[in-house]
Amino acid sequence: MRWLAQTVAISSVNVMSLGQRLGSSSVAVVGFAGVVAVFVAVLSIAEGFQRVMARGVSPDTALVLRAGSDTEMSSGLDLEHTRIIKDAPGVMRGSDGPVASAELFVIVDVPKRATGTDANVPLRGVEPAAFAVRKAVKIVEGRPFREGQNEVIAGRAAAREFAGLEVGNHLRWGDNVWEVVGLFSAGDSVYESEIWTDARVAQPAYRRTGFQSVYARLESPDAFQRFKDALTSDPRLDVEVKREDEYYEAQSQVLRTLVRTLGNVVALLMAVGATFGALNTMYSAVAARGREIATLRALGFQAGPVLVSVMAESLLLALLGGSIGGGVAYLVANGYQTATMNFQTFSQVAFQLAVTPRLLVGGVAYALAMGICGGIFPAIRAVRAPIAMGLREV
Amino acid sequence: MKYLPLLWRNLMRRKIRTTFTFLSITVAFFLFGLLMAIRTGFGVGIELAGQRRLLTVHKMSMIQPLPFRYLAQIQGTPGVRFVTHMTWFGGVYQDPKNFFANMAVDPEGILRIYPEFVVDGDDRERWVNTRTGALIGRKLAARFGWKLGDRIPIQPTFFRPKDGKPDTFEFEVVGIYRGATPDIDETQLFFHYKYLMERTGDPGTVGWYAVEVEDPARADEVAHAIDRQFANSPAETKTATEKAFMQSFANQIGDTGAILTAIAAIVFFVILLIAGNTMAQAVRERTSELGVLKTVGFTDLTVMALVLGEAVLLACSAGVVGLALVTLAVPALAKAVETFLPIFYVPGRSLALGLGLAVLLGLASGGVPAYLAQRLSIVEALRKR
Amino acid sequence: MSDALVQVSDVHKVYTRGAERVDVLKGLELEVGRGEFLALMGPSGSGKTTLLNLIGGLDKPTSGRVAVAGRDLTRASPRELAHWRARHVGFVFQFYNLLPVLTAARNIELPLLLTGLSRAERQKHVAAALELVGLADRAGHYPMQLSGGQEQRVGIARAIVNDPTLLLCDEPTGDLDRQTAGEILDLIAELNRRYEKTVIMVTHDPLAAERARRVLHMDKGMLVEAQAA
């Protein structure tokens, strides 16, 4: 208890004298804040991307691709194969037959609003059942496209990021003109970055006879294995079956790895630099208080409390800096709308940066770790300094 | 120069403090170099050798093929010196994670249109004459340990062989190219377009055309002339300089340039504060000594220059060390990131910019302390003891 | 025009500390001839150091004129004054004011950096100055490694290395024991006699003042006429 009381006594004296060392202390705080802001902001890109890829997709929807294809882009399925797939066991059945949609996935050039340069936007040709497969899809403006017409509906994220996707607008891709007749939402999922049209209109326009994928709604998540086994054991087929959520989870991996690696390396290097700055601050704080510390020691305070008090000061600065950095990152980055390339499909995905609580906690923890590194050596020096010498210091 | 010992001794006065400041500046410039390398990797700010090369792609999207017969028409367009075609194969080696670019090309055309691919005489001849041969980049060869004569199986994705043989394409490594400059992608694999046709049947299409113009100044004019020929046909084209395509690709990834610049700015701001704080401390505790210098006859300007010089010396030496370290480290790192960023190096321009920033950092961090030192009154300074 | 080296005429110096106004010098008149050894004595706050600073061109009077060798210091710019100090004046301080980061030799070399001398020439001058103050064997020592007396010898060597006409000493023995103080005063006296430096020395110490050829007393910003020693 005595020990604790001593610690509290010294620490509070330290903290109160912080004001006198404002310049140097604020440098340390800004250093911590800068590192945490960069760390949180960069990683919020990965979080946001992961979030958009995880939303609106479910384990009870299966995705069938040609064997060996890891994305819809490189896949291809003939019409008859898609029929076999739709009739497989495990697929949910509605009044119009199986709840499954054979789809076409191509990319079209649409200018990005931010830069004005062309970007690869996914154009998905779907069958009517697509809306039953993905229940999250809802028309929020205009109306659905009519079958057999050169009409498209655009995801609301796509309409936001790319130019010319307003309802009533006409788009010219190749020798065809398409009319945007509606906008749809899809539970903030990756589908909102796409443009949808009738698969049977898209096929001739893109000179395809077949499809690239089949999306099938299963009777239950547990029906997946039965469905998969049926397809992979069918000698007429050569396909790969994935759960929708796992497929998109895998798609977000490259970018996530890239951004996380990048963010961590950059933040680590910055942290090293800022820690040196904090070391300077704490060494000069200890030097400035050499006499005061020596006096306390002469009065009978033990080494432990002195050490803890210096650490406490460093940690307080770190906590302050970490919170400021996290706060700034939250204000600047959270919800920021952007789009990037999905490296697996070479097409655009619109998403919002997400500063999650987990990131903020991580950022502050990062700052505290820097605070410990920046405080420990000066703290040891403060304790080790001979009392008599400290007292003589002017 | 005669003041150098004085500057040096002053910096060494508080070794720990100077060391920490030095290290934090070193780290900052290491980071700067790294950010610049990443920026280059994302294709931001790459200056391609002029605007000699155009790419002609399908107007709808790059993934749509173009008729093979366009080759002759483009070659006939006034202002075009040479044209060749390329087709994205998208093949996979063992696992999709082993991604690298692989393309079917005209073996002579590729060498002519990309003179920056350096291929030795023997390799060149073998490549042109081997129907199932593959020309691969040096980094790709290093990544998988491929040597000349190796046979490598590549699994096609959207191309399907129609000859009844197993799906896999087997290529013999007959040539290895290096880039004439560090901004050349050395992770690609090329093979004969004819061999692709042989195995999959001739669809009469290719992926895109690469065009060399006679006069780079007239590149835009030639691009328009090419596109005009195919206007209102089922396969309209979009022709632009290779640089414009790279720029548009970089834009697709996102505003990488702005993000990296923002990070670099924050780093510099933080380091500026750290270094500035150190310099301010150094000047504060040395007030009376500065007074002595002035007494002895140093002018206010000389004293200011000494303080500034100290800051610049610190910033520049640390900056040079940081930039040197990153220049050494980046080639090692390049191996680790080559799947994502095949081009990864610190451009000379960025190093020069880094040096400039180091001087600027020194001037900025020493600025206020130097001003105070210049203003310092001798009588006041000598009284403070 | 008198042939005195230092002419101080009707000099006033006023400091304002906040609301308070302090008249440090009140119409002071002084002439110091070439080759003189003058001691200025007086209680703390009598204005001795202020006067010395004015003669050394470190500070400017509120009114009046300070001229050295016919040159009016009150009209010179800070830059001109700095150049002038570098060439004509040497300062010796009570607390030596050596730069702790430089060796004895480097400290002495400082004023020479302001000249156009080559490195070799500078080293020659430094060696000569060290020889003169009897510290030839301490050239590479840092101030921390020297005794007080040795530090002051280095201080004196720095003051004379440029061969100035005027040597201004502010309590040069104030921080030294008696015996060492005696040795330092011997050195200053020798500089005055043999090398014909004009010396103006501010001191509290009557023993130090005894070495001077003329002693003036100051009190409340005025000279109080005193007898020659």
Structure explained in plain terms:
The complex is a heterotrimer of chains A (394), B (385) and C (229). Chain A has 394 residues and is α+β, with helices and mostly antiparallel strands. Chain A folds into two domains: 2-54 and 253-392, no CATH class; 68-237, no CATH class. Chain A has helices at residues 2-17, 22-54, 79-86, 130-133, 156-161, 199-205, 223-232, 244-251, 253-288, 290-298, 303-333, 357-384, 387-392, and strands spanning 61-66, 93-94, 97-98, 100-111, 118-126, 138-142, 151-155, 170-173, 176-185, 195-198, 213-217, 239-243, 337-342, 347-352. In chain B, strands 1, 3, 4, 5, 6, 7, 8, 9, 11 and 12 form a ten-stranded mixed sheet that branches. A two-stranded antiparallel sheet of chain B has the order 2-10. Chain B is α+β, with helices and mostly antiparallel strands. Chain B has two domains: 4-45 and 255-383, no CATH class; 60-235, no CATH class. Chain B has helices at 4-11, 15-41, 70-75, 107-113, 121-129, 138-144, 193-200, 219-229, 242-253, 256-284, 287-296, 300-337, 348-375, 378-383; strands spanning 53-58, 66-67, 80-88, 102-105, 117-118, 133-137, 151-154, 169-179, 189-192, 205-206, 208-213, 237-241. The mean pLDDT of chain B is 86. The radius of gyration of chain B is 29 Å and the shape is elongated. In chain C, strand 4 and strand 5 form a beta hairpin. Chain C is built from seven helices and ten strands. The two termini of chain C are 28 Å apart. Chain C has a single domain (34-60, 75-224), classed as P-loop containing nucleotide triphosphate hydrolases (Rossmann fold), CATH 3.40.50. Chain C has helices at residues 48-55, 78-88, 104-109, 119-132, 148-160, 178-194, 206-211; strands at residues 6-17, 20-32, 37-41, 63-68, 71-72, 89-92, 166-170, 198-202, 214-219, 222-224. Chains in contact: A-B, B-C. Chains A and B meet through helix 2, strand 4, strand 5, helix 9 and strand 13 of A and helix 2, helix 9 and helix 10 of B.
Short characterization:
The complex is a heterotrimer of chains A (394), B (385) and C (229). Chain B has 385 residues and is of the alpha+beta class.
